[in-house]
Design a protein that fits this description.
Elements (H helix, E strand, L loop, with lengths): L1 E5 L8 H19 L2 H11 L8 H6 L7 H22 L1 H22 L11 H14 L4 E8 L2 E8 H21 L8 H18 L13
Antiparallel strand pairs: 1-2, 2-3
Length: 219
């Protein structure tokens, strides 16, 4: 399922969400400008490597991506769900919330596989936190979703609680599959799970009560 947009209008301009997307895009273009061997060394240095953990890389890793699909998917989800969460918690709080979710996600991946020498990169954990917050703040929302069915492409509205709940269930199932595999996996599923749960919990602290009312529910 590919999300296209949600139905909740943002009442404020999503300055932070847009800035995060721009920073991720700049970092990715910089990666592409590097020769392959230098790029690998760059990711190894600024990604989170569990076996050689360094606190600064927890932040830098959130702005690095492994390829076009990786960054495109992450930025799409951030654009669709980030503006509404930013709207409810406020710009400054959203920065802290986003970084905290990403930090929890990175640490979860480190604890899950502490001997790994493979760098963990990507904004997925932080964005999972945004998705977890969204499901708490807007459980009655709908997500306009593209569903590719072989030669047929269907666009339907899916309840946000189902769309995001299904995404979370896939992460749990994927952890089980990877656990049964002798090869491991290239996706940080524990980071996704931890980020999502962190978002659900932290948004209770960061949300602004005076923005509780959502007008579109009451039309």
């Amino acid at each position: 399922m590919i999300p296209l947009r949600d139905i909740v209008p943002s009442r404020t301009r999503p300055y932070v969400t847009v800035t995060l997307i721009v920073l991720n895009a700049i970092a990715f273009l910089f990666e592409l400008s590097l020769p392959p061997d230098v790029r690998q060394a760059f990711l190894q240095t600024y990604g989170v490597v569990p076996a050689a953990f360094s606190w600064p890389t927890v932040i830098t890793s959130m702005f690095l991506h492994a390829g076009w699909l990786h960054i495109a998917g992450n930025m799409l989800y951030l654009w669709i769900f980030g503006d509404n969460v930013e709207d409810r918690v406020g710009h400054g709080r959203f920065v802290i919330f986003y970084l905290l979710c990403g930090t929890v996600a990175a640490l979860a991946q480190v604890f899950a596989n502490p001997q790994s020498a493979i760098p963990t990169i990507g904004a997925s954990g932080a964005i999972a936190g945004v998705m977890g917050a969204y499901i708490v703040l807007y459980p009655r929302s709908q997500v306009l979703t593209l569903i590719p069915l072989f030669i047929f492409w269907e666009i339907i509205e899916v309840p946000a609680i189902f769309f995001l709940g299904f995404w979370f269930l896939l992460q749990l199932m994927s952890v089980g599959v990877v656990a049964q595999s002798t090869q491991g996996g290239g996706v940080a599923f524990w980071a996704h799970i931890a980020g999502f749960l962190a978002g659900m919990g932290l948004v209770q602290i960061f949300k602004r009560p005076e923005r509780e009312r959502v007008e579109w529910w009451n039309r």
